[in-house]
Specification:
alpha/beta, seven-stranded mixed beta sheet, six-stranded antiparallel beta sheet
Length: about 550
């Protein structure tokens, strides 16, 4: 089968994309797979899988490496192989067979060379980043096939622009975005350190080092990122923010770029926003049935305030978007004030805060009340002024959804008191309060059953929590752990799930709080009278359901 037919059948690539790539191939002579990658229609791993099927070649197993064995081969020009991205990884002395890894199995110069040696050999396929990583095991000079123009002067900005459009720089950034997409990374961090420049991905909330760059290549890559994001390539003393969009494997990704000067050089963070993930379905967040009931009852109310608390990156905005999606219809006017607007949702009026021109949360909130909204979302209550206007809005016929930074749900009431909000206003406005964190899920591809020791089960109240919330379980408790595989990058985790603590602020709780004004007392009262469960309790339920591990729950609670 032709490679285009395989890609169409295996990955659903459209005929129009293949025809467009074939037209480009006629003009440039490049390989069809390479063109489709550059178009953003497929990823490199999809191409490798298709080539493996077409050429009947195995995909490289990362555990298969023994370069010491290569010493048994005389006259092997390793430098030539490395320059052509054919990495010798093992020599079987019994069968006298050489194993090589490549991402370009039809390089006839190399194949002819291997045939002339008279060696029996086996090719294995791998993505470009794997080939590069393997090449680091060799210490031969000049092995890099991707040379970047060296910069004579750090201030030669015209040369920086020239370098940013060099093929190796373009290819590296494309590969980086492809790899980040495959691993479902949310951020790419490019950081200047003493003597090195490292690249890290944030995957399921955890940073993992992916690569190291030399200084000239780092400068070239950063320059290209700045140009794509319409930033000033010459400005290195001040932070800059920008954005661009890119297509990766037929998926459109919005990339939000932030650069900041550091001690050694500039650092950059690329936030990846995946447009195809915009379902915002509340049932996929990990909220248990009893908590969903409270949330749905809350947003049915015509006015009042719902608060959700948690640190940065705990998924508060995603939860609010999910609730807004339920509320979003032709009968309601919904206005949001956000910093920044991460996702644009049809049917919702969204405002981007701009402190530099005086468009703050408070000033925007004052103005939008004249636009007669039914539902208002305030991205974050940061100060007394924003809190006061939000509370007043909730008391004058608007449903207000917002976020605070506190450790748990009951503490949010005390936080509003600290901001200077009167207790009777808090009691009049608040409908319910939630707190949340995000945990990593056990990888579904390499999970295996596991049982915790009895003393651990007793210490973390496994039995007690199961008995208290037995109605949330359809099956008996089961525990899983991930062994670590290629799908989860060896971590044992893939994907994320949220844990929650939620309470409805009823008259009984309002009276309790107005007399004691203690979040600790309120929390103890909730547990005692309302069977309230904390974030850790909700996390333990996820452990008992085999969704995550105890280690993950302890990490975030």
């Amino acid at each position: 089968m032709l490679i285009g037919e395989i890609l169409r059948d295996k990955f659903g690539i459209s005929e129009s994309s293949i025809k467009q790539a074939l037209k480009i191939q006629e003009e440039t002579g490049e390989l069809l797979g390479t063109i489709l990658i550059q178009m953003g229609v497929i990823t490199e791993s999809q191409l490798i899988e298709a080539l493996s099927y077409q050429l009947n070649l195995p995909i490289y197993d990362k555990n298969f490496l023994d370069i010491q064995s290569l010493e048994n081969i005389s006259n092997l020009n390793v430098e030539f192989l490395l320059k052509n991205q054919f990495i010798p990884v093992f020599y079987d002395t019994k069968q006298e067979k050489l194993y090589l890894v490549t991402n370009n199995p039809i390089n006839f110069d190399v194949l002819n060379y291997l045939n002339q040696l008279g060696l029996d050999y086996q090719l294995m396929l791998a993505e470009d980043y794997v080939v590069k990583e393997l090449s680091k095991n060799f210490v031969f000079g000049g092995i890099s096939s991707e040379k970047v123009l060296s910069l004579e002067s750090d201030e030669d900005f015209e040369k920086l622009k020239e370098v940013a459009f060099e093929s190796p720089v373009i290819k590296y950034l494309n590969t980086l975005l492809n790899r980040a997409t495959e691993l479902k990374a949310t951020d790419i961090h490019i950081e200047p350190m003493a003597g090195k420049f490292r690249v890290r991905f944030r995957i399921d909330g955890i940073l993992r080092e992916i690569d190291e760059l030399n200084e000239s290549f780092y400068t070239a890559v950063l320059s290209r990122i700045k140009l794509l994001a319409n930033l000033d390539i010459a400005e290195r003393r001040l932070p800059q923010d920008g954005k661009f969009s890119v297509q990766v494997a037929s998926k459109v990704i919005d990339v939000r770029v932030s650069t900041i000067p550091m001690v050694f050089k500039e650092g950059a963070v690329l936030r990846l926003l995946y447009r195809e993930r915009l379902s915002f379905n509340i049932s996929t967040l990990g909220i248990e049935e009893d908590h969903i009931k409270i949330l749905l009852e809350t947003i049915k109310k015509p006015y009042g305030m719902f608060l959700i608390t948690g640190p940065t990156g705990s998924g508060k905005t995603t939860t609010l978007y999910s609730l807004l999606t339920i509320l979003n219809n032709n009968e309601r006017k919904i206005i949001t004030i956000e910093d920044p607007v991460e996702y644009q949702i049809n049917g919702i009026n969204q405002i981007q805060v701009r402190n530099d021109i005086g468009l703050t949360f408070a000033s925007a909130l004052r103005s939008i009340l004249r636009h007669d909204p039914d539902v208002i979302m305030v991205g974050e209550i940061r100060d007394r002024e924003t809190a006061e206007i939000s509370i007043q809005s909730a008391l004058t016929g608007h449903l207000v959804l917002s976020t605070l930074h506190t450790n748990d749900a009951p503490s949010s009431l005390s936080r509003l008191l600290e901001m200077g909000i009167e207790d009777f206003l808090i009691n009049s406005a608040i409908l319910s309060v939630s707190a949340q964190r995000i945990l990593r899920r056990v990888c579904p591809f390499c999970k295996e059953e596991y049982d915790y020791p009895e003393d651990i089960k007793r210490e973390y109240k496994f039995y007690e929590i199961y008995d208290r919330f037995k109605n949330l379980f359809k099956d008996k408790p089961v525990f899983y752990r991930g062994k670590g595989c290629e799908k989860c990058a060896g971590t044992g985790y893939q994907g994320r799930v949220a844990i929650f603590e939620i309470f409805e602020y009823n008259d009984d709780l309002k009276e309790r709080f107005i007399h004691n004004k203690s979040s600790t007392d309120l929390k103890n009262y909730l547990i005692e009278k309302y069977n309230y469960r904390t974030l850790r309790d909700d996390g333990i339920i996820k452990v008992l359901k085999g969704i995550t591990t105890l280690e993950e729950v302890l990490r975030v609670t």
